[in-house]
TrEMBL record:
<dbReference type="InterPro" id="IPR011990">
    <property type="entry name" value="TPR-like_helical_dom_sf"/>
</dbReference>
<keyword id="KW-0238">DNA-binding</keyword>
<keyword id="KW-0805">Transcription regulation</keyword>
<dbReference type="InterPro" id="IPR036388">
    <property type="entry name" value="WH-like_DNA-bd_sf"/>
</dbReference>
<dbReference type="InterPro" id="IPR041617">
    <property type="entry name" value="TPR_MalT"/>
</dbReference>
<dbReference type="Pfam" id="PF17874">
    <property type="entry name" value="TPR_MalT"/>
</dbReference>
<dbReference type="InterPro" id="IPR000792">
    <property type="entry name" value="Tscrpt_reg_LuxR_C"/>
</dbReference>
<feature type="domain" description="HTH luxR-type">
    <location>
        <begin position="113"/>
        <end position="178"/>
    </location>
</feature>
<dbReference type="InterPro" id="IPR016032">
    <property type="entry name" value="Sig_transdc_resp-reg_C-effctor"/>
</dbReference>
<dbReference type="GO" id="GO:0003677">
    <property type="term" value="F:DNA binding"/>
</dbReference>
<dbReference type="Pfam" id="PF00196">
    <property type="entry name" value="GerE"/>
</dbReference>
<keyword id="KW-0804">Transcription</keyword>
<dbReference type="GO" id="GO:0006355">
    <property type="term" value="P:regulation of DNA-templated transcription"/>
</dbReference>
<protein>
    <recommendedName>
        <fullName>HTH luxR-type domain-containing protein</fullName>
    </recommendedName>
</protein>
């Protein structure tokens, strides 16, 4: 654990430099991302006040626009920090927004658990790669030495498993769930 803390203490000056540059160039998304990484780093180093201060800066940038994904992408370490912040900052504004972020994360985790039960065959996974690459059914059929009808049937099965109706929805869901 000592080595981990040492690594995080070395990262903080670097993140602060990046934050200064992001502020100078008015890159709000980058600022939020860096602030969240700083907050997590401070919490790991057990510097709760600094973690909360930096987290509040990120929340001030994110809340007016309703950003959610940027918080969810940081995963459990940030959610744990948000929960600690809620407990420590009872009178602070932003409680509803932070509660919404935590609820969104928990809902996403339930969705992920529910989708783990989807089993794709080796051939379906192969077709999914080609679908993401933007190939037509005929192109997929030629590459995999299948008939176009067989490809169409596989794609229909994939759509059913994904609970989607078309290729665009399939690609979106595959990318969203990081299945490939």
């Amino acid at each position: 654990m000592l080595m981990v803390r040492q690594a995080f203490s070395e990262v903080i000056p670097w993140l602060n430099k990046l934050l200064s540059e992001a502020r100078r160039t008015d890159r709000i998304g980058s600022q939020m991302e860096i602030l969240l990484l700083l907050a997590i780093s401070y919490e790991i180093l057990r510097k709760d006040n600094q973690a909360y201060e930096v987290l509040e800066q990120a929340l001030e940038l994110a809340e007016p626009e309703g950003y959610i994904r940027i918080f969810l992408d940081e995963g459990q370490p940030l959610i744990r920090l948000l929960q600690h912040w809620l407990t420590a900052k009872r009178a602070a504004s932003g409680h509803d927004y932070v509660s919404q972020l935590i609820q969104s994360y928990q809902s996403e985790q339930i969705d992920n658990v529910n989708t783990i039960n989807i089993h794709f065959t080796k051939r379906e996974l192969e077709l999914m790669h080609h679908i993401i690459d933007g190939l037509s059914n005929d192109q997929i059929a030629r590459q995999l030495f299948l008939s176009p009808g067989t490809v169409k049937r596989y794609i229909h099965d994939i759509y059913q498993k994904l609970e989607v109706k078309n290729r665009v929805q399939a690609v979106s869901k595959i990318k969203e769930k990081h299945w490939l």
